[in-house]
Design goal:
binds adenosine-5'-triphosphate, five-stranded mixed β-sheet, five-stranded mixed barrel, 23 strands, Rossmann fold, 30% helix, 2 domains, 418 residues, BirA Bifunctional Protein, domain 2, alpha+beta, binds magnesium ion
């Protein structure tokens, strides 16, 4: 991608009502545009990041047997009346709308009712189970406050997976597998060392639900963390009894702020029973299916990563999510320089490396400042002094030093982790 053709520009200022660091950085770098509180447009570079995160989540869900679908955002009222969730006192963040004929609809905030009725169409026997349908979809929630940038949207991207099992035992096996897949996701996003599983209130079907919390002062949650054991307790269930239960002691727990980047929940038969979602077990006896639900906030993760990986110059994307692996800064318009930089762009692109090419007619300082703000992991400079040598000046965004490398060394360095 050539920066000369990119319609987004970096900017020095952000809307005065945008107080969240993640959104400020992303707006300055031209990754997102703020439309209203909690609602953003994802611009070309921002969409690349969002898609990179989605793809990592998708790969890990597929590895544990997830099957991707896409359910509608428009929700039938009757289904939610059946489970009692149409009531605004039960779910307080619904966006609701109407058909021309007056029939009420809801905009999806979570899809248990939808997926349970869907499975009634397709599941007949215990042999079909367990199954794990999931989707990556825009969710709508009328959040009371939305001041955390991408971390709390009123319209946001979520991965929601649902499990259907014939027995509690089968459910527990699935639950554990998904839990491990979540750790893989966070590891690949480079936040594995800061992300901990916490026990949270579980409703009536299991003792606890589990949240995945990433440590950050920008987080809205408070958790009590045992760093050595790598587990934590959510504030709402932080009692002596729960500490005993989890083998934790108060003295070893740290009170820290964190961002909930995912959660997993045993639903029991809460959503299957109202729809009589049953299949025959091995003995031919009809069993109401056991469900689980598993959420990951994809756009919240993008905000979280922006929040955690940045410095005074801008974003510092982990390689796995960066919109490009490397940015070529071409210095000057001299034909020999242009030729050399064009060739490098073509060669790297030909190797399937995601490249940004700063071919704009700007001063060196401006180009370097933009490369830093955009947070591209590697920066290579092609200027007058590189024309006659085989050496290229390579800098890692997370390092202050530059080094001279050959073309082959450059390719080897940036391809090492892919
Ligand atoms: P929270 O306590 O932060 O409101 P939640 O319990 O409502 O989250 P879920 O309904 O379980 O969250 O949604 C699954 C995941 O979606 C959450 O773990 C979080 O990562 C993400 N998420 C929830 N609400 C939002 C939001 N308003 N904006 C962005 N991501 C969100
Ligand atoms: Mg919520």
């Amino acid at each position: 991608m050539r920066l000369s053709g990119l319609f987004t520009k970096t900017r020095k200022t952000v809307p005065s009502d945008e107080t969240a660091k993640n959104a400020q950085l992303l707006i300055k770098a031209g990754f997102v545009n703020k439309e209203m509180a909690g609602v953003y447009t994802f611009l070309p570079l921002g969409l690349r990041v969002l898609n990179n995160i989605s793809n990592i989540v998708r790969e890990e869900m597929n590895k544990v047997g997830g099957q991707e679908i896409l359910m509608p955002a428009l929700q039938l009222k009757e289904r939610y009346v059946t489970t009692g969730r149409w009531d605004d006192k039960v779910v307080d963040d619904w966006f609701k709308t109407k058909l021309v004929n007056g029939a009420e609809l809801g905009l999806g905030f979570s899809h248990e009712e939808n997926v349970a009725t869907l499975m009634k169409e397709y599941l007949n026997s215990y042999r079909d189970l367990p199954i794990l349908p999931y989707q990556i979809q825009t969710k709508f929630r009328n959040e009371l406050r939305s001041k955390s940038g991408l971390m709390r949207g009123r319209e946001f991207l979520m991965k929601d997976m649902y499990s259907f099992s014939i027995s509690q035992k089968q459910h527990e096996e699935v639950y554990e597998k998904v839990q491990n897949a979540y750790f893989e996701v966070y590891k690949r996003l480079d936040i594995g060392d800061k992300t901990f599983i916490t026990s949270a209130s579980g409703g009536s079907f299991s003792k606890y639900s589990h949240e995945f919390q990433t440590l950050s002062d920008a987080g809205e949650d408070t958790i009590y963390l045992d760093r050595k054991k790598k587990i934590a307790i959510n504030k709402e269930v932080f009692t002596d009894e729960v500490m005993d239960d989890l083998g934790l002691v108060r003295e070893e727990l740290e009170e820290v702020r964190a961002i909930e980047v995912g959660n997993i929940f045993s639903l029991g038969t809460k959503f299957s029973a109202p729809f009589a979602l049953k299949v025959a077990d091995e003995e031919g006896k009809a069993q109401t299916l056991i469900m689980g639900c598993y959420g990951i906030g994809i756009s919240r993760l993008m905000g979280t990563i922006a929040e955690l990986f940045s410095d005074e110059h801008g974003l510092v994307w982990p390689e796995a999510v960066a919109p490009a692996k490397i940015i070529i800064c071409r210095l000057g318009e001299d034909p020999a320089v242009v030729e050399k930089a064009d060739k490098l762009f073509k060669d790297l692109t030909g190797k399937d490396i995601a490249v940004l090419y700063d071919d704009r007619d700007l001063r060196t300082g401006e180009k370097f400042a933009d490369a830093d703000l955009l947070g591209i992991p590697y920066r290579v400079v092609v200027g007058q002094q590189n024309v006659d040598t085989q050496q290229l000046e390579l800098k890692q965004r997370s390092h202050t030093t530059t080094k001279l490398v050959s073309y082959t060394e450059l390719v080897n360095t940036i391809q090492k982790e892919t």
